[in-house]
Design brief:
Layout: E1 2-3, E2 8-17, E3 20-29, H1 57-62, E4 70-76, H2 83-93, E5 99-105, H3 108-114, H4 122-130, E6 137-140, H5 148-153, E7 158-162, H6 176-180, E8 184-187, H7 195-204, H8 206-215, H9 227-286, H10 291-307
Length: 350
Amino acid sequence: MEVHSSGLGRKRKREESNGEIRECFWKIPRRTLGLSEPAPFSDELVASKTPYVRVSMEEARLGTPEDRPVRVYADGIFDMFHSGHARALMQAKCLFPNTHLIVGVCSDDLTHQFKGFTVMNEDERYDAVSHCRYVDEVIRNAPWTLTPGFLSEHRIDFVAHDDIPYISAGSDDVYKHIKDAGMFAPTQRTEGISTSDVITRIVRDYDVYVRRNLQRGYTAKELNVSFINEKKYHLQERVDKVKQKVRDVEEKSKEFVQKVEEKGIDLIQKWEEKSREFIGNFLQMFGPDGALKHMLKEGKGRMLQAISPRQSPNSSPVREERSPSPTFRLPFFSPPPPHHHSGTHKDEDD
């Protein structure tokens, strides 16, 4: 159920349209005061003096006038009030378009007699129910079995409860006479959540909750814990703290190792990339077909070309014979004079 600023609630209804199930809402008067204050207790209200006539199921489903809501009654123990209780009361509130929900809460005496010991006392249970948003009125010290006088006194039209037979007080079903009178409106139980389930969880984890409350300042006497067990719980608490510290150190160590591994992997990847790049550059320079080989070939060709003589071209003219080289003469010697021959030879003495 949702509540809007107009003060109207909306009742959810499932309808089929073109083979598809969709949800729509009926606007219904929101009569409860629980939105801003707790629901009132019935013994604090002034009883109505108008004649009371029960409405039929058909009239209730069609919708009654606003000043005549359908009065639906739901009862229970409501110990450790939880979502299962709230959902049951929500279903009871949404049974009809215009519903006034009255909730009866049994006292401690009746509950301890027919069902067992409770965690919360009756005043705590009354108060918890009065703060539920679906409740319009709370009856304290509600009867275990509903009598015609009780139904008439509180002007009840229908009684809401799950349809499972409730075996108690020597009866196979305490709601059988209500069902026979046509005043029973069934609701559905919420699976997986009940007061017994909650208590079972506490009993199962008893040591954990005792240690928690000892740490929060409760005394061993308040928790009904012996001196030896108190010391045992304190020792367990210290051991758990040491274990937690060890786990924290291990977790931090794992995180540190993981970070180192991640950085190491990153460095290895970068090193591999750089090494591949270096090897590629090396092969490009010094490999079999590298740049250095081409440079050496080019340099060798240029050197051979520089040191080898050029050949004469085929079309060049034939060189003439060279003139004899001049005779080398020493500067202190002069060539002998030429001889002149005559017909007679005459000595210088003649």
